[in-house]
Amino acid sequence: MIEPLLVLLAGVAAGALNAVGGGGTFVALPALVAVGLPPVAANAVSRVALVPGAVTSAWVYRHELAPVGPTSTKSLTATSVAGGAVGAGLLLVLPAASFAAAVPWLLAFATLVLAFGRHLSTALTRVLGRPVGMSGRAALIGQFVLGVYGGYFGGAVGILMLALWGIGFGLDAAAGNPMRVTQLAAMYLSATVLFLLASDALSAPLLLGAMLVGAVAGGFAGAHLARRLSARLLRGVLLATAVTTTVLYFLRG
Hints:
The chain is mainly alpha-helical. It has helices at residues 2-20, 25-34, 39-60, 73-93, 96-128, 136-152, 157-169, 173-198, 205-225, 231-251.
């Protein structure tokens, strides 16, 4: 029973991180791999398990949603759903060895975005003298690309969303967080449908159930705590987790 308990705790942490600022994959995926699941199966199980937590967080934020730039909430959500489905399809079609080899580099990329994304946005704004302008069409194209990334891997996709919206529309991270959580849920939902139909996500029902229960609890609590805790402290914890996980993945070869 030790392994399900560890996965349950990882689910709580992952759900809370996704609700607060993103990065639940940094906890969920390594935890499932550590208890013996292959990387592709672990990715599918984590995505399915984190959906209820993401939906729970989105429900908590339901009264705080605001459009992102000129895009409507419906068009942005539809784009996220489509991108998530395409990304999940790529994960299922491409060889498992390709994903296993790509994981450390995907983690490294997400870690760099987490560490320096805000600085890049600030630097571009300073150089241009104003936030970088972005049309509604460009925003939807960018959202689709992020949806594909979210369906395939998902590490720090929420952070990438906030970076895109901050650079494109000058949107404050706090103001964009409710929409970020909602779009994360949309990406995960579409990916989950494919994973349940075509992957072996149900091959470890005990682990899936443990992470799912933990993610719901973490998602609910994290969405409420996000309004109270220091954003700087939370970002520091997330960055430390991301760096540690990335280094360990490279060391294990």
